[in-house]
Amino acid sequence: MSYTLIKDLYAHAESFAGQSITVSGWVRSIRDSKSLGFLVLHDGTCFATLQIVYEEGTISNFQEISRLPVGSAVIVTGEVVLTPNAKQPFELRAASIDIEGSSTPDYPLQKKRHSFEYLRTIAHLRPRSNTFQAVFRVRSLAAYAIHQFFQDRGFVYVHTPLITGSDCEGAGEMFQVTTQNLAHYPLTDHGALDYSQDFFGKPANLTVSGQLSAETYAAAFRNVYTFGPTFRAENSNTPRHAAEFWMIEPEISFADLQDDMQLAEDMLKYVIRYLMDRAADELDFFNSFVDKTLLQRLTHIVNSDFARCTYTDAIEHLKKADRPFEYKPEWGCDLQTEHERYLTEVVFGRPVFVTDYPKDIKAFYMRMNEDTRTVAAMDLLVAGVGELIGGSQREERLDMLLARMEELKLDPENYWWYLDLRRYGTNRHAGFGLGFERLIMYVTGMANIRDVLPFPRTVNNLDF
Amino acid sequence: MSYTLIKDLYAHAESFAGQSITVSGWVRSIRDSKSLGFLVLHDGTCFATLQIVYEEGTISNFQEISRLPVGSAVIVTGEVVLTPNAKQPFELRAASIDIEGSSTPDYPLQKKRHSFEYLRTIAHLRPRSNTFQAVFRVRSLAAYAIHQFFQDRGFVYVHTPLITGSDCEGAGEMFQVTTQNLAHYPLTDHGALDYSQDFFGKPANLTVSGQLSAETYAAAFRNVYTFGPTFRAENSNTPRHAAEFWMIEPEISFADLQDDMQLAEDMLKYVIRYLMDRAADELDFFNSFVDKTLLQRLTHIVNSDFARCTYTDAIEHLKKADRPFEYKPEWGCDLQTEHERYLTEVVFGRPVFVTDYPKDIKAFYMRMNEDTRTVAAMDLLVAGVGELIGGSQREERLDMLLARMEELKLDPENYWWYLDLRRYGTNRHAGFGLGFERLIMYVTGMANIRDVLPFPRTVNNLDF
C-alpha cells in the first residue's frame, strides 16, 4: 500500500484539496475536547507536521485514539481540507485511524523541552525530536551537497582505506586494530609483539586522514575527493572532539594554493546555498531556538568574498589588537581559537584564509615557500568557530620533500609509494580537509559535536 | 592558470576548432619520426586521450620531448585542429610543451599489458592504467548514482558508527579496537581483561553492519540509507572477500517485503542506467577487454522485470534440475552460488528475488512468517554472481522478536535500544544490504574484489 507523504502535501496542497488520502507516521501530540480530537502527525518526510481532526461518531475508535500515547505509529485515512485562515494551511479530517504500533505512557520523549544532555542518553530516539530531526536532515543534505558539488565538477570520489599500516602525519593518537587475544598477544622469542600472527601480519591502525592515498588518485584522475570516516584516539573530552568523525578531503592536480582556496570558498558557499534552498524550515528552527545569528551569519558568508592574509600579517594584526589574549600572539606559534576568531570577526569581518604558516607548525608534506621559513598552507577561519578548513599546496619536489622528512626524522621507506608520485610525473597539486561535523555545527549552530553525530564515540562513551 | 580539459574537448570539439588552448596531463606514449612527433596525453578527466602533434622548429625542445619517459607530466599549448578523417576526431598542434615533472625510464607502468596481480603491487600507480581508470571512475559514478537515487526519493543519509560495542548479528569475526599496549593489556585482579582502562572503557569492535542503527533512524525519518565502510575479520583468502568494504543499507518504514524488493530493483536499474549514460567509454572498454557479455547483461537487466520465487519453490526447481550440483539442494540448507546462478541463469533467465527462507539460516531480526518456519527475507540473485543483495522485512512485534532472541541465546540487554523501537510506536519496516564492491564487480566484469577497491585490505595484506 502506498501512502501520501506530508512533504508532498505541503508542496502541492491545492491539488490534494477535497481528496481522500492515507498517511502514516508517528503521533507527536493528541488533545481532545468531548467529541472532537486533534492529532499532530509526523511522518519523517519533512520538518512540518500534519494536523488531523477526528470526531466521535466518524471514527470508530475515538476513545482509544484519545488515550493513545505520544510516539505511537498510526495510519490515517481522511479528507484534505484547506484551512487558509488557520495556523496550518490544511488539515486532514479523519475517516479512520488505525493503530500500527502503540507507544507507552512512559515514552522517554514526551512533548516538552529536553536538555541535549538527556537526549544523548536516548540517542536512538532523539532523531524523533524537532532539534535532531533538523540536525540530521541537514547533515544528510549537506553530505549530498558536497557530493553534488564535486561530482558536477568531474571530481572522482575515492574510498581511501580505513585500516592502515602507516601513520599519515606521524602525529595524532591512533586506534590499533587486531584480531588477537588481548590477554595473550603473541610474542616472539625475544618478547616483542609477534605481529606475524595478527590478521594483517603487521601493526594495523585506524586512519587519521585519507590525504596521502588521495594524492595517488589525484595523480591519475586529476581531481578527486574523499568523504569517509577518520579516527583520533585523543583523550580530549571537549565539545569539539570525537574519536570517530567524517572528513572531506579533495585533492587537485595542476593546481596551487590559490586554486585550493578558491575551491574551498566555492564549496562552502555551494553547501550553504543548497541548505538554504532545501532545508529552509530546519534553518529557521535553528535560528529561532539554537542560534539567533545563524541565518544572518550564513547569508553573510554566501555574499562575502573571503579575505586572504598571510600568517605573518595575521600575527601583526594580533599584536596590534587592543584586547588581551589568553595566549600572546607570537610568530612561530600556532594560532589559538581566540586569535582566529579575532581575525575573522574583528579584523576582516568575513571569512578569511590565513596562508603561509611557519613550516615548523605544519605537516611535512606542505610545499616550502621561497623564504624557506614558511609553507604554502592555508586555514579558513570563520566567525564563531575559528578554523573550519585546513589545506595546503603539496611539496611536489622530491628533493625538497626528502629533506623535510629527514628534518622530521620520518623514514622514507615507510612512504615509498608516496615518494613515487614525485618520481613519476610529479606535478603541482593541492588539497584541503574539512571536518564534516565542524561544518554541521557551523551551519546549524549546534555547539557540541556529540549532537551532530548520530551515535557519537568519545572517551569512555561507546553506547548504542 | 586554468587549463582546457580533454573531457570538454570531446564534448565540444567544434567550438574549440582553430583555438589556441593549454592542456596539462601525463604522457601515455610518445613516438617520433625525424622532425615530427606524436604525444598521447591523458589528463585524468575522461577515459579518452588527446593526440598532440609536435614538430622540430615549432617547439623549442623537440629532442628533449622525444626522449621524455612515459608517465611524465607536461603542459602543452597549441591549436586544436579537427581531423574528421583520422582515428581521433581532433588533435592538438603544439606550439610549446613544458615539462612539469619528468618520469623515469624504469617507470613501472609502461605501455604494455600488465597482469592484474602485478598491478596490485603498484596500487598507487595502477589508477593511471586504462583498466583502473575505468574501474575507479565507474566506482565513483556508481557511488554518486546511489546517493542521487536515494536523495531524490527523500531518503536521509545516516552515518552509522564504525566503532561499536555490539555485535550486530552475533555473527562474523570482528576486529577489535584498542589504545592499550598490546604486550601488556591491563588485567583486573582476577586476571580478566580490564577494559575500564581502554579508550571506551569497554570492548570495542569494528562494525559488520549499520542496519540496527539505521533502523533507529528509519523510525524517525521514515526512509533512510547508510553508505559506509564495514569490516569482516574472516580469514578467507578468496576473490570475493575483503576485510574492509563498503555497504549500502537502506531502511524503509511503513513498508513490507514487496516494497523492499521494488526498491532494490529500482535502485539497481537506476545505477546501471546512470553508468550507461555517464560511463559509456568505460563500459565499452570492459566489454572489449574484461567481459564480452557485459553490455548484453546490463542491457538485459534494465529491461527485465525481476522474477520472484519463494525459497521453497526454488528448492523444488533445483531438485528437478538435470545437472549435478556439488552441494545437493535440500530444504533448510543455504543456497550455494552454484544454486543461485542456476536459478537466475537457467530457470528464470533474469534477476530473481528468492524469498521466505527458513528461519534457521537467517538473522534474528527478520520477520517471522505465518508458517513459523520461514522468515520474510529476500536475496536478489543475478547472473554470473549469485547473491547481489540481501534484505528482509524486520520483526516489528516485540514478543516475536524476544522469543526469537531467546531461541538464539541473544541477551536482550545488549539490544535494549533496538528493542525500544518495538516498544515505542513500532511499525512495519524493511531494508536490504548491498555490498558495494560486489556491485562494482558486477557492472565492470572485474572478477577479483582486490581490483575494485583502491587499496584492498585482505588477510596478510595491508600494503600502502
TrEMBL record, chains A, B:
Q: Which InterPro entries match?
A: Aa-tRNA-synt_II (IPR004364), aa-tRNA-synth_II (IPR006195), aa-tRNA-synth_II/BPL/LPL (IPR045864), Asn-tRNA-ligase (IPR004522), Asp/Asn-tRNA-synth_IIb (IPR002312), NA-bd_OB-fold (IPR012340), NA-bd_OB_tRNA (IPR004365)
Question: What reaction(s) does this enzyme catalyze?
Answer: tRNA(Asn) + L-asparagine + ATP = L-asparaginyl-tRNA(Asn) + AMP + diphosphate + H(+)
Q: How does it assemble?
A: Homodimer.
The family database entries (Gene3D superfamilies) matched by this protein are listed as:
Bira Bifunctional Protein, Domain 2, Nucleic acid-binding proteins
- Transmembrane segments in this chain: where? none
Organism, scientific name: Bianquea renquensis
PROSITE patterns, alphabetized:
AA_TRNA_LIGASE_II
The Aminoacyl-transfer RNA synthetases class-II family profile domain sits at: 136-454
Q: What is its main location?
A: cytoplasm
Q: Which family does it belong to?
A: Belongs to the class-II aminoacyl-tRNA synthetase family.
Q: What is this protein called?
A: Asparagine--tRNA ligase
Q: Which HAMAP family match?
A: Asn_tRNA_synth
- Single GO cellular component annotation? cytoplasm
Q: GO molecular-function annotation terms?
A: asparagine-tRNA ligase activity; ATP binding; catalytic activity, acting on a protein; nucleic acid binding; transferase activity
Can you cite a GO biological process for this protein? asparaginyl-tRNA aminoacylation
Q: Which domain of life is it from?
A: Bacteria
Instruction: Supply the enzyme class, top level.
Output: ligase
